[in-house]
Amino acid sequence: MWRYLVGGLAALALAAAGMLVFNRNARSVAALPLAPVGQGQATGAAAALPDTVPEASDRTREQKRFDRYDKDRDGKVTREEYLAARRKAFAKLDVNHDGLLAFDEWAVKAEGKFAAADGDKSGAMTPVEFARTAVKRKPPRVRRDCPPAAKDDAPANAEES
């Protein structure tokens, strides 16, 4: 008999824990304060919200990349505009500024990366050391659909004076 009683209490405790876990997100959103209306804004017609919401541009990544190259904004990328970025990169690599890129100048970044990864300075990388040379990718940008909350200028505890 006591086994049924303990089993029933355990089931109730499990159900209560589940309710707490699943309702935690809903409770935190419901507890957010509402934004004050009209605070710091003009009253009347000037305080009315616009009828339409501005939307983000539909330009693709490729259109943005094209615009970065098209310096004179004529809708065409000339040879000079296209090669300008390459010239800057070449100038950074050409350490002795002789207009020629030697292998050692070109490989400077790779050599530095190898030296930094080779922790035991053995001249060879172990699999763990090699893993340190992997390109660090940026995490994807989180798109926020709602505007940030307005900061309240009132003190946190109005009773203290």
UniProtKB/TrEMBL annotation:
Stretches for region Disordered:
131-161
List, alphabetically, the CDD domains matched.
EFh (cd00051)
User: Which intervals hold domain EF-hand?
Assistant: 57-92
Output the InterPro entries linked to this UniProt entry: EF-hand-dom_pair, EF_Hand_1_Ca_BS, EF_hand_dom
Gene3D superfamilies recorded: EF-hand
Alphabetized SUPFAM superfamilies for the sequence: EF-hand
Basic and acidic residues bias locations: 142-154
Superkingdom of source:
Bacteria
The protein depicted here goes by the name EF-hand domain-containing protein
Q: Which organism is it from?
A: Sphingomonas glacialis
